[in-house]
Design goal:
This protein is an all-beta fold. The protein is built from no helices and 9 strands. It is globular and about 40 Å long.
C-alpha cells in the first residue's frame, strides 16, 4: 500500500493491517473465506459498520449495530441473516474493516 504523510488510505499507517477472512459467515456482505480484509485498529464503535471482534476466545468479522447504551446487535449473513444481541462488555472490538480484496 502506498504511504503518504505516514498514512494509508488516510489512516495512521501503524494502525492498519490485513487479516484473512476465516469463514463464509459474512458472504452476504461480500466477504468470503480467504478474502483479505483491511482493518483499522480501533476500539470505537460506529453503528452499522463491519468490525473484527473477539467473542468467547474466537475472533470473527461481524456487522455491529448499537441498540442502546449497553446492547449491540451482531449481524452475520451466510445463507441467511443471523443476529444476536450481546452486552458490549461481553466482547472486544479489535478494529474496523475498511476494505476487502479478493482474487478473481
Amino acid at each position: 500500500m502506498p504511504i503518504k504523510d505516514k498514512k494509508v488510505e488516510g489512516l495512521n499507517a501503524e494502525k492498519v493491517f490485513y487479516i484473512i477472512a476465516p469463514d463464509d459467515s459474512m458472504r452476504g456482505f461480500r466477504i468470503a473465506k480467504g478474502d483479505r480484509v483491511m482493518v483499522y485498529l480501533t476500539p470505537e464503535l460506529e453503528t452499522n459498520a463491519i468490525y473484527v471482534i473477539e467473542l468467547e476466545g474466537k475472533r470473527m468479522i461481524r456487522q455491529l449495530k448499537r441498540l442502546d447504551a449497553n446492547k449491540v446487535l451482531l449481524i452475520s449473513q451466510s445463507n441467511e441473516i443471523k443476529t444476536e444481541s450481546k452486552d458490549i462488555k461481553n466482547f472486544k472490538i479489535i478494529g474496523k474493516c475498511i476494505k476487502v480484496e479478493f482474487e478473481l
